[in-house]
Amino acid sequence: MRFATTILSALLLFMAGPLARAEKAVPESAAAVELSFAPVVKRTAPAVVNVFAQRIAVSQQGNRFFDDPFFRRFFGDDGSFGRPRERVQNSLGSGVLVDPSGLIVTNNHVVANGTDIKVVLADRREFEAKVLLTDERTDLAVLKIDVPDEELPALGLGDSDALEVGDLVLAIGNPFGVGQTVTSGIVSALARTKVGVSDYQFFIQTDAAINPGNSGGALVNMKGELIGINTAIFSRSGGSIGIGFAIPTNMVRTVVATAESGSDAIRRPWLGVEIQDVTPDIAQSLGMARPEGALVVGLHPESPLAKAGVKRGDVILAIEGKPVENAQELGYRAATTAIGASTIVEYQRKGERRETKVTMVAAPETVDRQDTLIKGPNPLAGATAANLSPAVSDELGLPSELTGVVIAKVERGPAQRFFRRGDVILQVNGTEIDSVETLTTVLEANEGLWRIAVNRGGRVIKLAIGG
Q1: Residue 363 and residue 397 in contact, taking contact as beta carbons nearer than 8 Å
Q2: Which of 327, 322, 331 is nearest to 269 (CA)?
Q3: In angstroms, rounded to a whole number, what is the distance separating the alpha carbons of residues 216 and 280?
Q4: How far apart are CA 11 and CA 168, in angstroms?
Q5: Band of the pLDDT at 119, cuts 50, 70, 90?
Q6: Is the pLDDT of residue 16 over 50?
């Protein structure tokens, strides 16, 4: 009976019309029991599409020892052993039409490195899709299909900040490739920050069934608005156990706006601040009633917060009236604010609550990045190195105070075996690496043994390669 009462209470949302939200109340008549999700599904489902992506994967066939010249001396160097082979990988996901012109939002991981991307509409028509924008940091991508002389069904973007725990939602996508599927549930939680699938940890949690293939699909409210892009699930079996996560539309909106502007790179507001969560012990030491906010532990000299008067040791509590519960939420609130906008930041200093006006700025490029593809007989061959600045650090999700040289990209070559995107090169053969120019000069020395130290995620790793 409790389960039935919960469902009936939720269905009362239709009392004022198919898409209008009504006052929440206990059902009082038999007519209320006959209410259905069908009006919302009919309005929203045509805007949800299937996305199919193909990518070419290169695999090394044969034994890895044939990479070594010593073994090729005996078995030949004609490429018959250890030759890279190409194979086609297929990716299946979902997407959402957000503009009648054919603009589609999906997950970046659905289309990443795709060479042939197709979109199948709800009416089973199939179109080639062009990738307008991919953003690994939010795990979002924007596609475009051309359907001449036709306005396609599209979903409007709702305000994800208006969601409340307990609100009824529908998830629409193509799980396991079985075809378009609609599942229902509620908003189980808001502002989930430990999901780990993107740099901006601020997810809507729902118990609407989400499975592989739902990625990039729609999470809609009872007004028929898009309020999230389904992205990840927590599962021990690979299937749904009622814990799914969606990217809020207020983050989606910034990515779509960038794609509509014609830019292929997202410029986000930059705070230039190093922060950490306020633990119960920290809250007690600061005289706070409870743990909340983001503690400022460092500020870049060019930080707009520093210029507005915020200092190390302050606790940021809200941005533009929206509370900041932890460090991840501060990053989300900043990322969904426009560059150039003036916003009110509330913070606590020595037990006193204060506020200041902050002008949001893009991360500055304080030095020329000098993107350089490393070539030649060295372990870094195939990597693209760049001089670090706040702008480069922001693109790679690194602390803004880092300086020196970073691996901005890793392509085919020896670098794939030893290095990752975001590695900061500290030393090569005893020489401190302070610029791309210094790095290339050291690499041109062509020594047989390479001793390289890198900062990877705050941990120093020392490599000895060759000999």
Answers
A1: no
A2: 331
A3: 37
A4: 9
A5: very high
A6: no
d(CA 282, CA 351): 13
* Joined tokens for residue 433: 């690496």
Tokens 């209410």, located at residue: 35
Q: Choose, from 139, 167, 207, 314, the residue flagged as catalytic.
A: 139
pLDDT digits (tens, 9 = 90+) for 128-179: 999 999 988 888 999 999 998 889 999 999 998 899 999 999 999 988 878 8
Query: Which CATH number is 269-362 given?
Result: 2.30.42.10
Which residues make up the CATH 2.40.10.120 domain(s) of the chain? Answer: 37-265
Active site residue 139: yes
pTM for this one?
0.75
pLDDT at res. 14: 41
φ, ψ dihedrals at 177, nearest 5°: 75, 15
In terms of residues, how long is the chain?
467
Q: Could you say which architecture CATH assigns to the domain 372-466?
A: Roll (2.30)
What are the start and end residues of each CATH 2.30.42.10 domain in the chain? Answer: 269-362, 372-466
215 in active site: yes
List the catalytic residue out of 91, 109, 135, 300: 109
Of 91, 215, 240, 303, the catalytic one is 215
Classify strands 294-299 and 273-277 as parallel, antiparallel or unpaired: antiparallel
- Is 9 among the residues known to form the active site? no
Secondary structure in 3-state letters for the chain: CHHHHHHHHHHHHHCCCCCCCCCCCCCCCHHHHCCCCHHHHHHHHHHEEEEEEEEEEEEECCCHHHHCHHHHHHHCCCCCCCCEEEEEEEEEEEEEEEECCCEEEEEHHHHCCCCEEEEECCCCCEEECEEEEEECCCCEEEEECCCCCCCCCCCCECCHHHCCCCCEEEEEECHHHCCCEEEEEEEEEEEECCCCCCCCCCEEEECCCCCCCCCCCEEECCCCCEEEEEEEECCCCCCCCCCEEEEEHHHHHHHHHHHHCCCCCCCCEECCEEEEECCHHHHHHCCCCCCCCEEEEEECCCCHHHHCCCCCCCEEEEECCEECCCHHHHHHHHHCCCCCCEEEEEEEECCEEEEEEEECEECCCCCCCCCEECCCCCCCCCEEEEECCHHHHHHHCCCCCCCCEEEEEECCCCHHHHCCCCCEEEEECCEECCCHHHHHHHHCCCCCEEEEEEEECCEEEEEEEEC
Task: Provide CATH code, domain 37-265.
Answer: 2.40.10.120
